[in-house]
Amino acid sequence: MANSKFSLEEYGPVSSFSTSIISGLIVGLIIQNFIGYKPIPVIIFVLVGIYDGYRRMWRYSEKMEKKNK
Protein backbone atom coordinates (compact mmCIF):
# COMPACT_ATOMS: atom_id res chain seq x y z
CA MET A 1 0.00 0.00 0.00
CA ALA A 2 1.29 3.45 -0.89
CA ASN A 3 2.23 5.95 1.77
CA SER A 4 -0.63 8.45 2.02
CA LYS A 5 1.36 11.17 3.78
CA PHE A 6 1.86 14.13 1.43
CA SER A 7 5.20 15.88 1.65
CA LEU A 8 6.51 18.71 -0.49
CA GLU A 9 10.06 17.44 0.00
CA GLU A 10 9.28 14.55 -2.34
CA TYR A 11 8.83 17.05 -5.18
CA GLY A 12 12.00 18.97 -4.46
CA PRO A 13 12.88 22.38 -3.12
CA VAL A 14 11.55 24.25 -6.15
CA SER A 15 7.97 23.22 -5.48
CA SER A 16 8.34 24.11 -1.82
CA PHE A 17 9.71 27.54 -2.74
CA SER A 18 6.95 28.24 -5.25
CA THR A 19 4.16 27.06 -2.95
CA SER A 20 5.46 29.38 -0.22
CA ILE A 21 5.25 32.37 -2.55
CA ILE A 22 1.85 31.37 -3.95
CA SER A 23 0.40 30.82 -0.48
CA GLY A 24 1.70 34.24 0.60
CA LEU A 25 0.09 35.79 -2.47
CA ILE A 26 -3.25 34.09 -1.78
CA VAL A 27 -3.27 35.15 1.87
CA GLY A 28 -2.38 38.71 0.85
CA LEU A 29 -5.17 38.81 -1.72
CA ILE A 30 -7.73 37.47 0.77
CA ILE A 31 -6.73 40.05 3.39
CA GLN A 32 -6.71 42.78 0.75
CA ASN A 33 -10.23 41.79 -0.27
CA PHE A 34 -11.55 42.00 3.30
CA ILE A 35 -9.61 45.04 4.57
CA GLY A 36 -9.46 47.11 1.42
CA TYR A 37 -5.88 48.42 1.52
CA LYS A 38 -4.78 47.89 -2.04
CA PRO A 39 -1.13 46.88 -2.39
CA ILE A 40 0.10 46.62 1.20
CA PRO A 41 -1.13 43.13 2.29
CA VAL A 42 -0.12 41.52 -0.99
CA ILE A 43 3.39 42.99 -0.85
CA ILE A 44 3.88 42.03 2.80
CA PHE A 45 2.67 38.45 2.42
CA VAL A 46 4.56 37.83 -0.84
CA LEU A 47 7.73 38.97 0.94
CA VAL A 48 6.91 36.65 3.85
CA GLY A 49 6.38 33.84 1.32
CA ILE A 50 9.73 34.56 -0.33
CA TYR A 51 11.43 34.52 3.07
CA ASP A 52 9.78 31.22 3.95
CA GLY A 53 10.72 29.73 0.59
CA TYR A 54 14.39 30.65 1.01
CA ARG A 55 14.33 29.31 4.58
CA ARG A 56 12.92 25.99 3.37
CA MET A 57 15.49 25.75 0.59
CA TRP A 58 18.27 26.51 3.06
CA ARG A 59 17.11 23.68 5.35
CA TYR A 60 16.79 21.35 2.37
CA SER A 61 20.35 22.14 1.25
CA GLU A 62 21.64 21.55 4.79
CA LYS A 63 19.95 18.13 4.81
CA MET A 64 21.46 17.25 1.45
CA GLU A 65 24.90 18.40 2.61
CA LYS A 66 24.71 16.24 5.75
CA LYS A 67 23.47 13.31 3.69
CA ASN A 68 26.46 13.54 1.32
CA LYS A 69 29.05 13.61 4.13
Care to describe what's here?
This protein is mostly helical. Helix content is 75%, strand content 0%. The protein has two helices and no strands. It has helices at 13-35, 40-68. The longest helix is centred in the last third of the chain and has 29 residues, at 40-68. It is elongated and about 50 Å long. The model has no long low-confidence stretch (mean pLDDT 81).
Order of helices and strands: HH
Largest sheet: none
Helix content: over 70%
Protein structure class? mainly alpha
Rg calculated over all Cα atoms = 15 Å
SS field, number of helical segments = 2
Low-pLDDT ranges: none
Mean pLDDT: 81
Overall, the morphology is elongated
- Report how far the terminal alpha carbons are from each other: 32 Å
**How many strands in all?**
0
State which percent range the strand residues make up: under 5%
